[in-house]
Amino acid sequence: xAETPLSVEVVWIGTDPPLRVALQVAPGTxxxxxxxxxxxxxxxxxxxxxxxxxxxxxxxAVAVHGRIAAPGDxxxxxxxxxxxxxxxxxxxxxxxxxxxxxxxxxGERRWTPDRERAPAAPTxx
Length: 125
What we know:
With 125 residues, this protein is α+β, with helices and mostly antiparallel strands. The protein has helices at residues 31-38, 40-47, 91-106; strands at 6-12, 19-25, 61-64, 67-68, 79-84.
């Protein structure tokens, strides 16, 4: 009995709209095999958005349904392989910048060393 091919989609997030390639692959195909079969590396190289001296996929992270994937990971039916550009800002730094921006808008100070304390509640004897 012949095995049913798997439907897989390869998406490059580096363009607007994202570049999508739909594939039919054999069961047991890996992420690397699907990327090679998709021909997306040549399309990325032709786009001119790859730094010189690098291969088209070298600077990109690979994920399957939003989770980082290794080239040897085996694919399943309806998997979506995502090629993600590198982060432009460290997530911790971005979070700190957003918090500082919100503080500036609200007039709140981050540290208030001289703030007055509320008087202590009277104690009963």
